[in-house]
Amino acid sequence: RIIMGIESSCDETGVGLVRLHDDGTVELLADEVASSVEQHARFGGVVPEVASRAHLEAMVPTTERAFEKAGLALSDVDAIAVTAGPGLAGALLVGVSAAKAYATALDVPLYGVNHLAGHIAVDTLQHGPLPAPCLALLVSGGHTQLLRVDDIASGITELGSTVDDAAGEAYDKVARVLGLPYPGGPPIDKAAKNGDPAAIAFPRGMTGPRDAKNDFSFSGLKTSVARWVEGATRRGEEIPVDDVAASFQEAVADVLTMKAVRAAKEQGIGTIVISGGVAANSRLSSLAAERCAAAGIELRVPRPRLCTDNGAMIAALGAHVVAAKLPTTPLDFSANPALPVNVVSLS
Ligand code: ATP
Ligand code: MG
Ligand code: FE
Fold first, then answer.
1. Minimal-distance CA residue to ligand 1 atom 3
2. What keywords is this UniProt entry annotated with (predicted)?
3. Eight-state DSSP code of residue 120
4. What residues are designated binding site for substrate?
5. Distance CA 174, CA 184 (A)
6. Which letter does DSSP use for residue 345 in this model?
């Protein structure tokens, strides 16, 4: 069966096509993404109205490109999955409207699914079915959560989350302080490669004895980096951008991996999946690999292209929802900007 996935929760218009095989494996056929990120760069963050308009313009051409790449026709589609939330209301609406139109015209079932679960499900395209249970460390532009995944189609439980900024948000804000472009993850990752991660001892948030074990906090770290840079500037010193980037990145990777490994051990879970845009970070995956190996835990990280927003992740999740024979979503559903992670598909 062919599943089409549509993503439009933020600034990426994504259309993915996958094949669900009878044995439950999911094969990637096409993954086309159009990003409006350059239109937002000068604002240092996504401008919702600009993103919505860009989705509207990109939706049909991106869909056409996906079918062209896969060598398929619209009539080959057996089911459609679309991001129902969480995300920007106006942006989500474009994808949801397109999905409803395609599902009606093609007379195929429609599934409104969760963007965050999609970030996890995408890993099955690269590494095969997820073992159950597994522990997901979801680190993206808007979310940072530790999740227990008993079933990707219906069994996600939140163990903890950030109490303030998301990890990706911290990257974007620190990049701004350092004069690096938006989005900040990739340029910080690159600068950090030439820096000393031990140059500056930035704080590790939420790691005190009385702090919630599975929660995160990155706003103190962000402020600490900003203060450090202000201080150096005031003293007329040149900012060692590479060292600040490396030290900041080390603090983020240290806390994320420490908490993920500890939670997996406590839950008796043998596999950790890191997902979301920040999973593309090179230090996060190398430190996670080190610590998982030491703890005897299997680590799965999708390739960077699959970590950031795309349509294939929604198609992959849709395929798992179809395979689980879950109910379809009635055509009159609305997007939910605040859809909680435990609601994997709407019914
Ligand atoms: P959400 O999934 O929570 O709705 P989002 O979809 O906007 O948010 P993603 O596209 O999953 O977020 O991830 C984008 C974030 O990932 C940005 O904050 C970006 O800076 C960060 N990011 C991308 N590449 C890297 C990298 N190599 N290192 C660190 N962060 C990165
Ligand atoms: Mg994005
Ligand atoms: Fe995302």
1. 142
2. Acyltransferase, Cytoplasm, Iron, Metal-binding, Transferase, tRNA processing
3. H
4. 138-142, 172, 185, 189, 281
5. 7
6. B
Distance of CA 214 to the CA centre of its chain: 19
Q: Alpha-carbon distance 344 to 7, whole Å?
A: 15
Residue type, 310: N
- The pair of three-digit structure tokens given for residue 14, joined into one six-digit string: 């994504």
Q: Which residues are annotated as a binding site for Fe cation?
A: 115, 119, 309
Sign, CA torsion 263/268/269/272: positive
Angle among Cα 21, 23, 26 to the nearest 5 degrees reads: 45
CA distance 166 to 18: 30
Of 144, 171, 275, 303, the residue with max ligand 1 atoms within 8 A of its CB, to mutate for a pocket test, comes to 171
Question: Which pTM was predicted?
Answer: 0.96
What residues flank ligand 1, with Cβ below 6 Å?
9-10, 87, 115, 140-143, 168, 171-172, 183-186, 189, 276-278, 280-281, 308-309
Cα of 278 to ligand 1 centre, how many Å?
A: 5
Q: Give the ipTM of the model, two decimals please.
A: 0.98
- DSSP H or E stretch at residue 219: helix 219-234
Q: What angle do CA 93, 345, 163 make, to 5 degrees?
A: 80
First-residue to last-residue Cα distance in the chain: 21
Q: Is residue 184 left, alpha or beta, with left meaning phi > 0 and alpha meaning psi from -120 to 50?
A: alpha
Residues 6+ apart with CB under 8 A from 3: 17, 18, 19, 20, 77, 78, 79, 80, 81, 315, 318, 319, 322
pLDDT tens, position by position, 8-67: 999 999 999 999 999 999 999 999 999 998 898 888 888 999 999 999 999 999 999 999
Task: Give, for 5, the enclosing helix (H) or strand (E).
Answer: strand 2-7
How far apart, in whole angstroms, are the C-alpha atoms of residue 184 and residue 198? 21
